[in-house]
Amino acid sequence: MPIKRIDVKRKRYQEAKEFMNIICNHIDKLGPFNYDHPCYHQPCLEAIRQDAYEVVDEILSRSPGLLRGREYSFIKLAASNRADKIYNLIYHLNVRMDEYRRYEDNDENNILHMVGKLAPQHILSHTTGAALQLQRELQWFQEVEKLMLPKDLVSYNANMETPQMVFSNQHAALVKEGEQWMKTTSESCSITAALIVTIVFAAAITVPGGNVQETGIPLFRKEIAFIIFAVCDAISLFSAASALLVFLSILTTRFAEMDFLVSLPRRLIIGLCALFLSTASMMVAFSAILFLVFCDQRPWMLAPIGGLTCMPIAVIVTLQLPLLVDLFKSTYIPIFVTYSDDPQVPCYFIFGDSLVDCGNNNPLDSGWKANYPPYGIDFTKGPTGRFCNGRTTADLIGEYLGFDEFIPPYATATDKQISKGVNYASGGCGIRKETGSHNGGRLSLDIQLNNHNSTISRIATIYKNTTFLKECIYLVNIGSNDYINNYFMPEHYKSRHVYTEDQFAKVLMKEYSQQLMSLYKLGGRKVALFGLTQMGCTPYMVNKFGTNGKQCVESVNDAVNLFNAMFKPLVDKLNNNIADARFTYINTSGILYPQGEVGMRTPPCCKLGGDWPCAPNSDPCAIRALSIFFDALHPAEVSNIAMAARAYKALLPTDTYPHDIKHLTTLSLNKTT
Q: What CATH number has the domain bearing residue 90?
């Protein structure tokens, strides 16, 4: 029957997952809300309340932008309902703690005040016993406490209470209940231990069979059964005495809050284990002497004696083992995931244009700059040269890879920083050397590769070793400007007069493949190539060419798709011809515009100061989490979150080819001589 019930539950679980996938697929078809689908919000909140990890994981993988702007409400809900799996999931998604720990509710409670409040009764009831309930509450409080700033630990709410004061006041009754539970359990077990000590001590001094009168040596000392009796009786006596002392130490403790975290549960575990051992040893000792004295060495009597011996052992194990298991799991198996401090790869190098630029254009005489407000309004360091309100796709992937700091720009990278990676990306640049030249200085991909060569020389000089570079991740996101600021700008460039759209795509891909071979010769072995987005859907291209009643400029998207179609053959060719390297393609258009759907025509979040950039010091839109584009060309952070999430861990088989970045980090490459 138990096995049948397990099969039924497993079947129901699989049916529920299939049903969830069907619902999510239908929701995804309701509209192109790739970043923050409104239909997912309430189900996600309810799933957090229920600690339904699989549901939340599925929703966030389909709509990563759902987190943006709601971190505090999600974390608060997970903490209030003690949803540890959801808390671990959100923490793993690299939501920065400083984005929500500063928030306070109407009573000036920060997140630690919230966790200090007593969990609802239906949540507490999931844990056995008041002592273990209090232990779980302490574990939650300490986990969130580690992530708070020192000043937040002693901050007062509207009732003039610190988080610790809130915890103590809210859990005072639970401490009393835990104390009573501990005392009752210890008293019961200590009585049992005392009885065992009395019995086995009496058996030890009253030796079965008697002694030799002259020497006092037991008559049965050479019998195997007697030796078993003696050993087991001694084990039972010592373990029962130890258990008795442990239970007495519990009864005489002060029962402070923190004692329930490790000290008291650990003592109870030791006491119960010693009690189990003494009980089992006592029964074996009794069975051995029973066989020796009354069974006249008949082997067949071992079976009934063994069966009778197992009965009391089975009873105590059946009744007390679940408590012991709960104590062990609650004390020594952490509910919060501890992630390694080391990144998944030794270093991370970034090549590309303004989609991943982090400030390399700042020192240049260039119109391709974003080192002024409102750019960086949601970035921890403010305006840095990122063409975004917050983090770029490259920044977010760096967080997924486990890097604590953002990869520095080549323009300012120090000797200490370069071993972890460098960002060479430059706004306005392209695969072709002339791309973007009409608007001033920029660093083409060829120049970026030369800069990387210089970095390798610096690393070799400083660290005397460059072999680790073969294990690094190399991200390349470039090509958009070759269309926007080259091919579709015939007033400045000749490419459109010389090439058809198909010819230009082939010429561009040929030059790109040569540059990727140069990257390979410079040590690049794990390379992620980002395809181009549907640039005909950007506000800039829509305003420039018009759409003839369509959502996007279809002629621009058609030209871009010719180039994107060449990525998979390029990746196959490189992987087949180069045994010790792996290239992978990130299907940008497929991720942001699934099944060929075009994006919603949304205006830029910021006020424009020209054709595409934000006007300096202008006020951007208030709810940036709902904006696809920050300026007329560049995506807002919420779009980058969606892109990075599925580039790192693919949701659909069409997202990446042949691997996502997470898989790319784990690949073992063949070594060539």
A: 1.25.40.20
CB 607 within 8 A of CB 598: no
Distance CA 536, CA 552 (A): 5
**Has residue 500 been placed in a domain?**
yes
3-state secondary structure of 366: strand
180 shares a domain with 277: yes
* CA 228 – CA 621 distance, rounded (Å): 82
Bond before 2 cis per omega within 30 degrees: no
Average pLDDT value for residue range 62-69: 71
Provide the 3-class DSSP secondary structure of residue 66.
helix
Q: What is the pLDDT of residue 516?
A: 98
Given a cut of 80, whether residue 232 has pLDDT beyond it is: yes
Report pTM: 0.70
Q: State whether 418 and 379 are in the same domain.
A: yes
Check whether residue 111 and residue 207 sit in a common domain.
no
Q: Is the pLDDT of residue 315 over 50?
A: yes
Residue 73 lies in a domain: yes
Three-state secondary-structure class, residue 516? helix
> Would you give the end-to-end CA distance of the chain in angstroms?
61
- Are residue 151 and residue 199 in the same domain, yes or no? no
Lowest-pLDDT choice from 136-140, 337-341, 362-366:
337-341
Residue 671 lies in a domain: no
Residue 212 has pLDDT above 60, yes or no: no
The answer, yes or no, to whether residue 167 has pLDDT greater than 50, is yes
* 500 in the same domain as 401: yes
Q: What is the pLDDT of residue 604?
A: 94
For residues 133 and 162, membership in a common domain is answered with: yes
| Same structural domain, 97 and 233 | no
| Dihedral angle sign, alpha carbons of residues 353, 354, 358, 360 | positive
Strand order in the sheet with 656-657: 348-352, 473-477, 526-530, 582-586, 656-657
The dihedral region occupied by 69, where left means phi > 0, alpha psi between -120 and 50, and beta the remainder, is left
Write down the residue that tokens 């069975």 correspond to: 287
Query: In terms of Cα–Cα distance, which of 277, 184, 178 is closest to 232?
Result: 277
Domain extent, residue 218, equals: 174-332
Q: How does pLDDT run across 394-439, given as a tens digit for each residue?
A: 999 999 998 989 999 999 999 999 999 999 999 999 999 999 999 9
Half-sphere exposure of 644 (CA within 13 A, CB side): 24
361-404 pLDDT, tens per residue? 999 999 999 999 999 999 989 999 999 999 999 999 999 998 98
- Number of structural domains (the chain) is 3
- pLDDT higher than threshold 50 for residue 490: yes
Q: Are residues 26 and 55 in the same domain?
A: yes
Q: What gap in Å lies between CA 582 and CA 340, rounded to an integer?
A: 25
- Active-site residue set: 354, 631, 634
Q: Is residue 337 part of a domain?
A: no
The enclosing domain of 510 has a CATH number of: 3.40.50.1110
CATH of the domain at 305: 1.20.140
Range with the largest mean pLDDT of 223-232, 336-345, 446-455: 446-455
| Sign of CA pseudo-dihedral 22, 23, 26, 31 | negative
Query: Which SS3 state, helix, strand or coil, does residue 583 take?
Result: strand
**Other CB atoms closer than 10 Å to residue 373's CB: what's the count?**
17
